[in-house]
Amino acid sequence: MTLAALTASAQAAGSAPLDEAVALIRPLLLDIGWFGAWLTDQIAQMRVDPLHLPPVRASSNGAVRHLVFVRTERFWVTATIIDLSAPPSDRLHFSGRHALCRPLNKALRGELFQLEGVRPAHIRPIECRPGKMLELDERHQALRLTPGTSALMMLRAQIAPRGPVLARTIDLVSGGMSAQAQVDEAHARTLMLLSLLRMQRRRDAAPMFAAALDAPLPAQRWAVMREYLALDTAQALEPLTVMARADADGKVQSLARQTLAQLEQPQCRA
Hints:
The chain is an alpha+beta fold. 39% of the residues lie in helices and 30% in strands.
C-alpha cells in the first residue's frame, strides 16, 4: 500500500461508525509495508539531494515528535517518537478517540488507567513488543508510559467517533479534572467560513447561518448566532427568539435572552 492509498482508505472510512472505521484502519498498522516503502523512497531521494524534505508535515510537543502521514477530520496516522528520559506526567490524557499503537524499535511499556465515573483507576501494566499492536479506547482509557533511557518509536493511528470529540486531562494525584475540551473540526471549518461571509457582508448567505444553528454543542450554536447577529440582526432576530425560549442548554438560553433584551431596548437618540 502506498501513502496515497493510505490517505484514500482514511477518506473512504470518513462517515463510518467508530467500530467500522477502526476495522478499516487497523490493517494499515498490521501490515506496514507501506511505511517501509516510504522510508526507502525518502532515503533514496535524500541521497540524491541532501536538501530533500519529506512531503509530510512534522510537529512536536514537548518530548513528543510526529511525522503526520494522514490527518482528516476523523483520522490521524503518525510516526511518533517519544523521549522517555523525563519523569512521567502526573496528568492522564483521555483523547476521546480510539488509538492503535505499533511500537517499532522496542517494547511499549506503561500503566493502563480507566475512568470509573469521573475518576481514573489503575487497571494493569501494559507491555506491547515490536510487531504487535496495542488498542486503546481513549474515550475512557489512558496509558502512562514507563520512563526509559531511549526514545520509543511507533506508528500510531487515532480514530474519532462521529460528531464532537470530548478530550479530558485528569490529575492522577487528586483525581480531579484539570482540562476539558469538546472538539468538532467540521464545525470549526464551518465557523471560519461563516466569519468570512460575515466580514464580506454577504447577507445573501443568511440561510447558511440559519442552518449552522443546528450544531451539536452549545458553544457552537452560540458562536454561530453571534456571527448571524453581526451579519444581519433583523434576519437573526427570529432564531434568536427561538433560542432564548427553547435551546436545550440553559446557558445558551440565558445568553440569548440577555441579547434579546438588549436588542429590544429603545435606542438612545443623543
